[in-house]
Backbone:
């Protein structure tokens, strides 16, 4: 018989929560009885019960600190961090603008570091805490046309793997969730290089949220270090 860890009554903080994977995770956790702090540039609470929406640019450490603090002030504790906020830009390495280079490192990598740093003092007070990083297949393999994006995602994966070594004995589970192609509006605007013609056949945001929920609901006697998923339309690599 499968042992499932109930999430009822837990508190989660999710970055990049207003759309895409972040919003799908927020909805699924809310449906599972989790109260959610939703950090995004818009501050949208998605109309969810027991939710607080907080405007937050994760590239700004002070804003992340304030968003986590607002969540804890509202709900009294913190048990789950889902570091999901991310941006992308694709194309030949020499053609990626300096602005997009800075943004990918600041949001994807520094934003994850800032979120963990802000959340961890509260997570360490929880009897059953989890850190889930929404990384990418691009954090496990290098792809042409995605060099800087891969660099930011490899950094996320390395950070979370290292944190597992530090935090396991303190009761905090750390997991990388690494999806392949997901049919969202990610990197479709502002000359970011993603071709919308590739979206049909990709996974949905809810497919990825299902995996996050699976990770969080496993029995506390084990942890999942990394899980990778790809759409059936996408070839395997290596």
Residues:
């Amino acid at each position: 018989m499968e042992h499932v860890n109930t999430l009822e009554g837990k508190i989660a903080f999710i970055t990049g929560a207003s759309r895409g994977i972040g919003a799908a995770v927020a909805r699924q956790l809310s449906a599972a009885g989790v109260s959610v702090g939703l950090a995004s540039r818009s501050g949208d609470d998605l109309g969810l019960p027991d939710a607080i929406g907080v405007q937050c640019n994760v590239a700004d450490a002070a804003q992340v600190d304030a968003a986590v603090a607002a969540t804890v002030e509202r709900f009294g504790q913190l048990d789950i961090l889902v570091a999901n906020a991310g941006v992308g830009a694709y194309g030949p390495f020499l053609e990626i603008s300096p602005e997009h280079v800075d943004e990918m490192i600041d949001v994807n990598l520094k934003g994850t570091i800032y979120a963990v740093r802000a959340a961890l003092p509260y997570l360490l007070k929880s009897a059953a805490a989890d850190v889930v990083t929404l990384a990418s297949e691009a954090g496990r393999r290098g792809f042409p046309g995605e060099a800087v994006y891969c660099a930011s995602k490899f950094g996320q994966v390395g950070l979370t793997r290292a944190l597992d070594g530090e935090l396991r004995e303190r009761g905090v589970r750390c997991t990388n969730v690494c999806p392949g192609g997901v049919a969202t509006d990610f990197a479709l605007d502002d000359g970011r290089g993603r071709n919308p013609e590739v979206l049909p056949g990709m996974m949905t945001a809810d497919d990825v949220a299902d995996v996050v929920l699976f990770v969080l609901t496993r029995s506390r006697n084990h942890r999942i270090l990394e899980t990778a998923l790809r759409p059936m339309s996408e070839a395997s690599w290596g």
